[in-house]
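From: lab user (bench 3)
To: helpdesk
Subject: output format question, protein + fe (ii) ion

Hello, I'm new to running complex predictions and I'm not sure whether the block I got back is the full result or only part of it. Here's what I submitted:
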Amino acid sequence: MTGRELDGGLVERLTAEMHWEMSRTGPPDGFPVFPDIPSGRYTDREFYELEQQHLWTNSWICAGRSSDLPDNGSYFLFDELNLPLIVIRGKDGTVRCFSNTCMHRGAPVVREPAGTVRNLRCQYHAWTYDATDGHLIAVTDERDFPGLCKDDKGLPEISCDTWGGWVWVNLNPDPIPLIDFLGSFATEMDQFQTEQFQLVGTDHRVIDCNWKVAIEAFQEVYHFRFIHDRGGKTQLDSRGATMGLLPHGSSRQVVPFSKHVTEAAGMASFDDWKELPNPFGFAPTSTVHPIVHSTSYAFSVFPNLVTPVAANGFPWMLFFPDGPGRTNIRIYHYSSPENVDMADAWAKRIEAFALIIDEDVENLNPMDRAMNSPLYTGTPISYQERRLWHLNEAIDRTIGIERIPEELRVAQLLGDYIEN
Ligand code: FES
Ligand SMILES: [Fe+2]
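Helpdesk reply: Thanks, we reran it on our side. This is the complete output you should expect:
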């Protein structure tokens, strides 16, 4: 044991939950009945603007890998939040984030998407900012700016922290600490040793649909038997799916394998947790629990990350809105260190995953168009789609419920069902 393994008590609880889900004849007693989710949340410019002003400015967003900043002075640009940011490792080794808008006439301070600098020197008139704390060091022809106070013209700093080998930014100047926000997600992820992961591939998609239409397709398995049909042989048994609603809108989903997959894998039953040989030949990380091998295990981190984890490396999927009806899906495939050199196997694995994504995204634009129809007013949500309601509740809390027109809100119903 290294101290990084998954807590055995959690595995027992998840196993019991899966058995209970298999056997139930309806939702648990007293579980709330969801009203329809108003379709205006997906289609109205007004709701989109509320998200832009209050959700994306007040959430921890994964911006990249710490390893992409190998040296002091290494930086990369991050523009996915519709404002230009620089993520940079200072002379003290700490990663920080600054606005990439020069305080002189608003040029981008740096233009190259990544690089290494001594200082941040604007390419337009060479105002120079400190790479560590962003303060304005030098102004070209300073004698021509009488009254300019350099102390007031530093680059605005954005909240920034690292966890798991990733850099996270938050436009809220005083956010909840990242590690408190991530909570049990961070604890459960410890088994994967993600700080050692390396990028082995990307798959970026632009989909004409609202970002919630896109991300919600990855937060339930109600669709699995139909959209991901394999000639009548589905891989998962969605009846046993257990959903953990985590604080702050994040969630976990663990789904047992279907009977034929269980049998083919030599498992005595769906909960015969075993380290299974990987079909692509990857070696597992030793601290990963067998339950990860023998289920479909996935997380979403509020608001825009989905990750279906695996014992040897896995995809990390980020969803960014680009207007009310357009979403950039950024899929990053990471490998654990023992499998980094298996280029052919990764190519096959990434292609196989892309096929699943193709099946998911095929629906998204037609759904978005249908949601814009006046004949469609809202989405009924089932018990097994409860992660979607949980996401939407947290969106409203983050925006501020009172800011949202009543007809566009979702009720706060799941407070009693959130895991501690
Ligand atoms: S805009 Fe940057 S120095 Fe003028
Ligand atoms: Fe799917």
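A quick orientation on your result: The chain is about 25% helix and 25% strand. Let us know if anything else is unclear.
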